Amino acid sequence: MGHLTLKDLARKLGLSASTVSRALHDHPDISDATKRLVLDSAKEHRYHPNPIAQSLQRKRSNTIGVIVPEIRHNFFATVVSGIEEVMYEAGYIIMVCQSNESITREKVNAKALAANRVAGLLLAISLETVNSDHLQEVIRLGIPLVQFDRVVEDLDTSKVVIDDFNAAYKATTHLIETGYKRIGFLNARDGISLNSLRFDGYLQALKDNGMQYYPELLVKTGGCREEDGRNGAEQYLKMVNPPDAILAINDPVAVGAFCRFREAKMRIPQDIALVGFSGSPESALIEPALTTISQPAFEMGKIAAKLLLKQLESKEDDFTPETITLDTQLLIRGSSKPEAN
Asked: Where is the HTH lacI-type domain (predicted)?
């Protein structure tokens, strides 16, 4: 048996398709008796509205598209949970895609979601995204767009970010106050504002505390995963005068570096201290536990979703993009406290 259409149901009842549609939507012009007849028949024949046909009629669906760099990263998975909680309560479902840190896949995802007439799009850009033409096209199509965490700064959309500069500043200051002198920065790559802001916060903390910046201690891993952290640690291990502490761009990179240093028989934090970024559950499981910047991921997802709902409910002429900056918390643990061991 094929899918029963609205016209099939109308034909069975001897009514017009428009009458059946209005009865299903509780239109006041339709009598209670006709509504009962239609609803009972729809239940009997297991009729379900066709969401594709509905989206064509309304020019959009009740689906919200979400694009994240990767789901396996606990931070983004938690953000998605926050988005889903708000959108479910508002009557929307979410469709999640991951770019896998590829701008090509991000473009494909954005195009596919737009073709499926999503009501709106929530996005954290990939590490490769330095051109926003595909996102400009989403906006041109009239699809509301909200960016979170990793954003294109000059794109005129609402954004939810953390205070990356001050978070890195706090983390670096902690390392300085603990007594470390040669502090390295394990970055991903250039081009992403988040990376630049964290690096700038690190530099400013060194300057404000009268500490020297050693350019050779800036190592760019190219990515944000554990294997990238291992590769970065390998570069530090080859140095004649390596750092005594490192601020990593995120927790997976810090954990990868941690594991490689341990394999090299380095003591943490006595020989080298480590600080991450994210506040992921994994950061508390290694020994000693990783000092990290805790980011409000779930709250970020909820706020991004609410900004999108606000845009969906506003008239186009009345909409003004907003940028909301969330604060962070420095969780000081054993990986940066020599006295802890």
From this structure: 4-58
Give φ, ψ of 247 to 5 degrees.
Answer: -100, 120
If asked whether residues 93 and 171 sit together in one domain, one would say no
Asked if 172 contacts 183 with a C-beta cutoff of 8 angstroms, the reply is yes
> CATH number for the domain including 147?
3.40.50.2300
pTM of the model as a whole: 0.81
- Predicted local confidence at residue 157, as pLDDT: 96
**Spatial contact of 124 and 68, defined as CB atoms under 8 Å apart:** yes
Is there a contact between 329 and 163 (Cβ–Cβ < 8 Å)?
A: no
Domain count, the chain: 3
Domain that holds residue 35: 6-49
Q: What are phi and psi of 296, to 5 degrees?
A: -80, 70
272 and 222 belong to one structural domain: yes
Distances from the Cα of 169 to the Cαs of 11, 163, 182, 273, 289, in angstroms? Answer: 69, 10, 16, 16, 21
